[in-house]
Amino acid sequence: MPRKIRQLVADLEHAGFVRVSGGKGQHRKFQHPKHSGSVILSGDDGDDAKHYQEKQVQAALKEVTR
């Protein structure tokens, strides 16, 4: 069963990512000082996360924890 968008957001915030302006509609943009670039998530909190969104968040978390 895929994770929910709210779980991905919680993982990012727990790792120190901060939501910044720049997302349109249901898009949310997160940045971290140790991460090159930004992570953009789309969808409502209760929506199932897409496979590529989960991979993007995992890669960002891995880069920050190095």
| Oligomeric description of these chains | single chain
Give the DSSP E fraction (strand runs of 2 or more residues).
15-25%
* CATH topology-level fold name: Metal Transport, Frataxin, Chain A
* Secondary-structure-derived class: alpha+beta
What's the CATH H-level homologous superfamily?
A: Hypothetical protein
Quickly count the helices: 2
Strand order of the largest sheet: 1-2-3
Radius of gyration from CA coordinates: 11 Å
Low-confidence stretches: none
Distance between the termini: 28 Å
- Taken in chain order, the helices and strands follow as HEEEH
- Average pLDDT confidence is 94
Q: What percent of the residues sit in helical stretches (DSSP H or I)?
A: 25-40%
Biggest sheet features:
3 strands, antiparallel
> Number of domains in the coordinates?
1
Under the CATH scheme, which architecture would be assigned?
2-Layer Sandwich
Q: What's the number of extended β-strand segments?
A: 3
Identify the CATH class.
Alpha Beta
Shape: globular
Describe the protein's topology:
Elements: H1 5-14, E1 18-20, E2 28-31, E3 39-41, H2 51-65
Antiparallel strand pairs: 1-2, 2-3
